[in-house]
C-alpha cells in the first residue's frame, strides 16, 4: 500500500497534462531521488508515463487506454480543463476553451470562478449564443480559410443585426473578419455593453488556428485593464499550445467528440 500511495502521488502531478523533469517530480512528490527513479522506471515500463527525448516525463498511452476513448481527445480535454482552471483562478472570471472541429464550434472546457454575480447573466447569454454573438465564435470563424468560412455561412446564414450588427452583409462580414485576422483577438461588448467577452487563439500541432481561449466579465469591473486581460489569456494560450505541440495533438486527427458538447458555452 505504501508503494501504491507513492505511485498515485506521482501520477497526480500529471493531472493537468504537465511535462515534468526528474528534479521537479522529486521536489513536488517529496519522495527520495532513489524512490522516484525506481517508480518512474516502473511507470514508464507499463506506459503509464513516457520519458521524452530531452529527459522530461508526461502521461503515457496506457493511461488513456484505461480511461477509454480516443487518446488524443482525452488528453486534449485534460489540457483544456487545465487552461480553463487557470483563467478562473488567475483572472477570477469564467474560463472557456473552445475548438473548431469539422465546421463545428466545440466547447472543450468551462470553469466558473469561486465568486462573481455576473455568471448568472453570462450563462443566459451563453445559452443563446452561437458563431456570431461570442468572441470565441467570431475568432474561430475568422481564423479559418475563406472556403471553410463560406461553408459555415452556407450552413448557418449571415449574422442578424442582433447577433453582429457590424457584419450583416457578406461585405461587412469579411471586413470584420479581416480586422480579427489582423488583431488575432476579439473583444465583444454585449448585453447593452454590460458584459465584455474576450478571446485569443491557440494552434494545434498542425499549425492550424483551431483553439480559442476566452473569458467574460462585467464591463469596467475588473481590476486589470482589457489589454492586461488579453495578455493573460495569450499567456495561457501559449502554454496550452506548447503542450498540444509536445503531445502532437491535431484536431484533424480526432475522430470522435463523444465526450464534448457541440456549440455549448
Fold and architecture overview:
It is a single chain. The protein has 265 residues and is an alpha+beta fold. It has 2 domains: 2-66, Winged helix-like DNA-binding domain superfamily/Winged helix DNA-binding domain (Arc Repressor Mutant, subunit A, Orthogonal Bundle); 69-262, Beta-Lactamase, CATH 3.30.450.40. It is 46% helix and 18% strand. A 6-stranded antiparallel β-sheet has the order 5-6-7-3-4-8. A two-stranded antiparallel ribbon has the order 1-2.
CATH superfamily of the largest domain: GAF domain
Known CATH architecture of the largest domain: 2-Layer Sandwich
Give the radius of gyration: 20 Å
The proportion of residues forming helix, as a percent range, comes to: 40-55%
Number of extended strands: 8
Principal-axis shape: elongated
Q: How far do the termini sit from each other? A: 42 Å
Briefly note the structural class of the backbone: alpha+beta
**What is the level 1 CATH name of the largest domain?**
Alpha Beta
Number of self-contained structural domains = 2
Please state how the strands of the largest beta sheet are arranged side by side.
5-6-7-3-4-8
CATH-derived topology of the largest domain: Beta-Lactamase
Biggest pleated sheet: 6 strands, antiparallel
| Uncertain parts | 117-129, 258-265
Tally of alpha and pi helices:
10
Give the mean pLDDT.
Answer: 85
Instruction: Tell me the strand percentage band.
Output: 15-25%
Order of helices and strands: HHHEEHHEEHHHHEEEHE
Amino acid at each position: 500500500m505504501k508503494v501504491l500511495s507513492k505511485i498515485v502521488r506521482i501520477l497526480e502531478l500529471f493531472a493537468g497534462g504537465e511535462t515534468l523533469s526528474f528534479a521537479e517530480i522529486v521536489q513536488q512528490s517529496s519522495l527520495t531521488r532513489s524512490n522516484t527513479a525506481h517508480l518512474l522506471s516502473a511507470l514508464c515500463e507499463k506506459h503509464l508515463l513516457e520519458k521524452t527525448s530531452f529527459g522530461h516525463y508526461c502521461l503515457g498511452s496506457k493511461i488513456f487506454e484505461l480511461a477509454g476513448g480516443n487518446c488524443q481527445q482525452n488528453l486534449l480535454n485534460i489540457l483544456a480543463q487545465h487552461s480553463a482552471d487557470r483563467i478562473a483562478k488567475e483572472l477570477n472570471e469564467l474560463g472557456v476553451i473552445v475548438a473548431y472541429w469539422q465546421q463545428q464550434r466545440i466547447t472543450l472546457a468551462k470553469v466558473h470562478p469561486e465568486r462573481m454575480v455576473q455568471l448568472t447573466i453570462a450563462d443566459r447569454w451563453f445559452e443563446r449564443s452561437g458563431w456570431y454573438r461570442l468572441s470565441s465564435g467570431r475568432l474561430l470563424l475568422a481564423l479559418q480559410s475563406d472556403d471553410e468560412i463560406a461553408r459555415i455561412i452556407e450552413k448557418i446564414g449571415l449574422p442578424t443585426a442582433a447577433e453582429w450588427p457590424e457584419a450583416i452583409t457578406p461585405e461587412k462580414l469579411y471586413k470584420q473578419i479581416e480586422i480579427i485576422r489582423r488583431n488575432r483577438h476579439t473583444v465583444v461588448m454585449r448585453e447593452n455593453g454590460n458584459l465584455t467577452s474576450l478571446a485569443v487563439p491557440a494552434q494545434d500541432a498542425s499549425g492550424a488556428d483551431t483553439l480559442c481561449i476566452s473569458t467574460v466579465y462585467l464591463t469596467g469591473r475588473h481590476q486589470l485593464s482589457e489589454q492586461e486581460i488579453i495578455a493573460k489569456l495569450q499567456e495561457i494560450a501559449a502554454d496550452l499550445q506548447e503542450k498540444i505541440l509536445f503531445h502532437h495533438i491535431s484536431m484533424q486527427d480526432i475522430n470522435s467528440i463523444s465526450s464534448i458538447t457541440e456549440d455549448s458555452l
